[in-house]
């Protein structure tokens, strides 16, 4: 009895959304790229991603993106640049 749970899918990102995401991350780069892993820094990073997601969704035309989705997309973009 394997019950497979499908993950939520959203529409594909368009180029303007990727540019918006990168622009927002560059503004908060000092916080998001901080290497510290303590509780205070983790909370600040989480709040920053929440703020970033709200700003992204207010400017995006292609639908809602969650904080988790945006963070994942940014990580994939960073891997692609290496």
From TrEMBL:
Pfam families linked: Myb_DNA-bind_5 (PF13873)
This protein's UniProt keywords: Transcription, Transcription regulation
Superkingdom as given in the UniProt entry: Eukaryota
Keyword Transcription regulation attributed: yes
Myb/SANT-like DNA-binding domain residues: 9-80
Function: Involved in transvection phenomena (= synapsis-dependent gene expression), where the synaptic pairing of chromosomes carrying genes with which zeste interacts influences the expression of these genes. Zeste binds to DNA and stimulates transcription from a nearby promoter.
Protein name stated in the entry: Regulatory protein zeste
């Amino acid at each position: 009895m394997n019950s497979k749970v499908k993950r939520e899918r959203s529409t594909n990102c368009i180029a303007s959304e990727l540019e918006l995401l990168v622009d927002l991350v560059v503004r908060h780069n000092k916080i998001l790229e901080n290497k510290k892993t303590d509780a205070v820094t983790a909370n600040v990073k989480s709040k920053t991603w929440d703020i970033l997601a709200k700003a992204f969704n207010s400017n995006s035309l292609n639908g809602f993106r969650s904080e988790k989705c945006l963070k994942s997309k940014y990580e994939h973009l960073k891997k692609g640049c290496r």
